[in-house]
Each structure stands twice: as C-alpha cells, then as structure tokens.
Amino acid sequence: MRALECECGEHIEAVNDEELRIRLREHLNYYHQQGEISDEDLERIIAERAYDV
Questions:
Q1: Whole-angstrom Cα distance, residue 10 to residue 20?
Q2: How many C-beta neighbours within 10 Å does residue 12 have?
Q3: H helix or E strand, kind and range, residue 13
C-alpha cells in the first residue's frame, strides 16, 4: 500500500503508485478544483510525498 497526505490534511491511500495517482487526481479535482493537472505533476507529488503503509 502507498499513501500521501495532501497539503489540506486529507490522507490518500491506494494499493500502488498508479492507483494513488488516480486517487490524487480525483481529490485535487474535487476538493481543490485544480482543473487539468498533468501526469508529470502528479508523479512529482507522489515521488516527493508518498510513503509505504
């Protein structure tokens, strides 16, 4: 399992980085109205902040 904490404090968890990227995109779009966020930006966020659980 992989997880990260959004800057808003939301805990996001998934079985792997690919699923985490999907969940992070959904979270950012729904809660932060990010609009289109690139895969590269999502991958950077995951690389910097994701951890194993």
A1: 13
A2: 19
A3: strand 11-14
Residue 7 φ/ψ, nearest 5 degrees: -60, -20
Q: Which SS3 state, helix, strand or coil, does residue 50 take?
A: coil
Predicted confidence at residue 36, as pLDDT, reads 83
- pTM (two decimals): 0.91
CB-based contact 30:22 (threshold 8 Å): no
**Pairing outcome for strands 51-52 and 11-14:** unpaired
pLDDT tens figures, 1-50:
999 999 999 999 999 999 999 999 999 999 998 778 999 999 999 999 99
**What range does the domain containing 9 cover?**
2-52
Split into its structural domains, the chain has a count of 1
